[in-house]
Structure formats: structure tokens, C-alpha cells
Design brief:
Length: 244
Amino acid sequence: ATPTAVMVGTGKGAELGILIKKSESLERAGDITTVVLDKTGTITRGQPAVTRVYLYHFKDEDDLIRLAASVEKGSEHPLGEAITAEANARGLSLSEPLGFNAIAGHGVKAEVENKQILVGNRRLMEKEGIDLSGAKDDLKILENQANTVLLVAIDDQLAGMIGVADTIKEGSRKAIENLHNMDLEVVMVTGDNHRTASAIGKEVGVDSILAEVLPGEKAAQVKKLQSEGRVVAMVGDGINDAPA
Ligand code: ADP
Ligand code: MG
């Protein structure tokens, strides 16, 4: 009766908005030991908003937001949208960026008003040789408060940082509790940094966290868990979260 069960299951899934690509996936569902959840857009809403702005060697908060948003308007990342939304809310008018470049898992860069602007995480700044020593303490505080921090450098100098926070979906904690009741291990995976990831992971009660994972590395992380004997179900919000 397996084919019938699979057919009914696939049909029922489709009714609920769940697409099943291969019937083997459904047949193996009973063997799952581990559920891997993407952070942004799966555990959280995926609609981050600006919470705080810090300035370093730079005078004007609106100016910093304006320059950062002028770069981010070329980005499709929710973090970029958070910055352009903030610029809008402040009534700032943006400039046209030149040579826009998005670096997956790192951030964005472009030239704005003859200035070289970088917006991204610690990894991006380190790659570009930007000195972060002045910001380290503030950075820790924001990350411990579950903020994702966007560092902003202007002409090779750290100019400021923008704290951005996403809200946890209402049902996330309960969903993870339900998975635990089914004796499943729950792992969170994210490109975000360890501190922010662990602040969110603790709130929802996941068993472990894989942080600072580049988009192209997520599948390899799942393979690693499988090679350790786990049967893994991966849950993500986007096409880029699914294996090829
Ligand atoms: P996730 O989907 O888990 O949030 P991503 O790979 O999309 O992971 O992003 C990882 C990190 O890369 C972000 O937390 C951020 O630090 C940085 N980043 C990515 N895109 C941008 C962007 N447009 N502006 C600033 N930082 C970004
Ligand atoms: Mg994502």
C-alpha cells in the first residue's frame, strides 16, 4: 500500500502548500533524526529593522544612513531593505551608487558621491583591511542583544555601525518544542555571526547552532551531519536553502 500512501500524502501536502519533490523523501520522513532550521525568514520573520546607530570618526547619523542606503538600494537582501526603509523613514534622498558589488555572506560595496563605501559584517571588514578596534565593545553589546550589526566603512575607515534586529516568529518556540517532543534534534543554521545566532538560538531553544555559514556551504553542513549518521530534514524559506 506504499504507493497509495505516498500519493495520498503528496496530495495532502500540496493542499497544505507543501511540495514533495521525490516520493523517497516522504518515505524516509519517519527516519528523520535531525531538523535543520534556517534562521532568517524561517525562525525569524525575515523583516529586520534598524534599532541603533553608532558613529566613529563621523559626525552625522543621517549622513551615515544615507550613504549606506545608497549602496544597499542595489541589494535584494532583507538587511539592505532594512537600511533603505530607515532612510525612507528619515526622509533622506539617496544617491546613485557606482560599481555596486554584493559579496555573498559578507555585505555590499559601491562608490557613492566619490566615496568608497562598504556595508557588511566583520568578515567583510577584515577582508578589506578595515581597523575595527574602536568598535569592538559596542559590537559585542549589540550582538548579545540579538542584533545583526552592519559595519559601515567610508574610504577605508570605519565610520559607524547600524544595529538591525529581526523578530522571532510567534510560533517558532512552540514548533521547536513540538519537534523535541517527537525526539528530534533541532539545529539552527545561519550566515549571521556566532553571538547574534546564539542570542536567537537560546530564545527559541534549539540544540545547536551552525553560524557564519556562507550560502554555498549550507548543503555541505547538511552532508556533514548526514555523514555522522543523522537523517536530516532541512527547513528554509528560500530556493537558495534547498540542495540542487
Ligand atoms: P542568512 O540568510 O542566514 O541571514 P546570509 O548569507 O544571507 O545569511 O548573510 C550572512 C551575513 O552577511 C549577514 O548576517 C550580514 O552580516 C552579511 N550580509 C549579507 N548581505 C548583506 C547586505 N546586503 N548588507 C550588509 N550585510 C550583508
Ligand atoms: Mg537566508
